[in-house]
Amino acid sequence: MKTITSPNGMLADGHDLALLEFEIVDDQGRRCPLANNWVDFKVEGPAEWRGGIGQGTGNFFLARQLPAECGVNRVLVRSTTTPGKISVTATSGVLTPAAVSFDTKPVTVSGGLRTDFPGLTLSSFMGKGPTPATPSFKVSRIALDVVSATAGSNEHSIKNSYDDNEYSHWVSDSTVNNSWATYNFAKETEISQVCLKMRNFNSINAPITILVDNHVVWQGAVERSLGYVTMAFEPITGKSVTIKLTGDVAGGERFGNLVELSEENQVRRQQQGQGQFGNRSMNRTYLAITEIEFYRYP
Length: 298
Known about the structure:
Structural class: mainly beta
Number of domains: 2
Number of strands: 21
Helix content: under 10%
Order of helices and strands: EEEEEEEEEEEEEEEEEEEHEE
CATH superfamily of the largest domain: Galactose-binding domain-like
């Protein structure tokens, strides 16, 4: 058992704490990581038992018997306003008992208040560990900034689809030919990924085409998901990206009870006479984007 106190020792001020670490070891002093023994504690001297924590009812709050977890655990004792010697003994069945003892130091009190500040004698440590010899991470993609956008319909709200705000969105009208949006960059740049979060992302399957300038780089369905979906393609240089809807957007639950619980969805479900988690199947013809992002490789 190991005692951890302030570098200046434990003070008899009624609130200073000592942390006691204990571990169960074999006859060679090696920790037993599979040991989950019950450990009983006894405290003697001017101290209050503050206990530890363990998995179980009430987390063993203030209990004098605690389980070791993976062979270790920790407990706390608190000083009183009386200085003196504190002894803590730990026992567990046939295991050899462990005990520690330490003294609490008196403090000067005037009018019920201490005459010093406890932290004044503690030195500050402003050091840091060594700088890693190699980078701690590797950049896998670089974001591209959109400077403007146009749309086949509802263009007044197209900025909502790239404003970095997931509470806003853009929705086209219900005509396939008008269900497109074009995003422009400040200059020609290499593009390799489009990251898209659709409106009602977990309950729709949207067929789209992605064009860089006038070149088709990706075609397919944006599958139902739990958020963002990334469409990757061979790097290509261009100044704009266009997202076009190419058919009906299919609807229906895919993730069971994991549905988007927005007020809009709740009202629609009630109108359809369905429960909160009922299945639904519907087709619609509009493109709805919550957020869209563009990337290139480093």
